[in-house]
# Entry
Amino acid sequence: MRIKSIAAKQVYSDLGPAAIEVSLETETGIKTSALATPFMSGNIRYAAIYDYSDNNFNKGLGSSVNYINTVIAPHICDVSITDIEDADSLIFEEDKENAGLAGISAFSQASAKAIAIETKTPLFNIFGTACSPRMPLPVYSAANGSTRYSAEKNEGNKPEYFFVSYGFENYSEGFYALWITAKKYATLLSAVLQVKVEIDSQIMIPKDRISTDIVIFDIMTRAIEDAGYVGRIGIGVDLSGNLFFDGESNSYVNILKKGSFSSDEFIDEIAELCSKYDIKTLINPFDINFTEGYEIIKKLGVSVIVSDWLFESLDEMTEYARYNSLGICMSLENSGTISAALNAARIAKEDNRQVVLATNGLQEETLADYAVALGCDYLCCSGISFIANRIAEIDEIIRRG
# Structure
């Protein structure tokens, strides 16, 4: 398959920051495009290269777009590729600094789509044997919002808690169980908050309605019990504790409840949660320098995960997680190429560590295909209907052989 042309442009996303869309055309007439949003990119180097090309937000991605169109495009056009590794090899290390990881990701995804069409292969199955395709577990976001204890600073809407379905034969059965559980949860939460709670992928907890997040854990547990799914639906936790860490006082502030914890007190609080509730996974509980905390929680049998946005590169996260026996949570935007994401997932899976894919602003249906191809344990925000429906469809295709 020979690439005829690629073109990048800046587009708007409903998340606020500008996004990059890359369109690709092959000599056989295949046309694909992919969108990547550099959102919540944290420490990842080159993830977002903002400039002043967008007057509405006083920042933009014009320089990244220009680099893709004037430097990468001439280099790539008329090149023949046979698989995603071929396509991704056309991007060099210096391109990350100029095009940004979001631009690289959009190109890689557009290439993957074109290869899938050209080879008449489902997108989730074009990545070879880097990871064995498997279905992610259905999850449903139950609560988020970091300003619920009167804190004025919004720390990425964290902590976030979600239901995790793990005791079902297929994705559709698990997701139906989550829907039933979510309805029970919405009724219980509405009574406590004294506001109507709708089943939604983003349930924000208002300020000053609860005194401690123990209330949320109790309601989630009660909902699971009322729905009849004890031992089949558990709780996932994305604390992002590093966002609430105050280095000057060496304490965690306005997380789990209003006020502060010392590092030792915070470990005790999380250990108690993990002992009392059916917590299946725990994302970013501490700052990455607090390895003692990670070791204590791992001994409780909970899968502890770190995110790519805590590190300056995907390779750094992969090595840190491997050395400390932690799972990984990554987004395609912060990975750059699909090949890089596949490699990180493969390394984690070889050690039986969890792999989670975050949307990070990417809301395309094809995210479901990538989650399956990467062998992810679950996909954050897969409660979004069209992504969940695609996962269920892939599940049916795989089960039918």
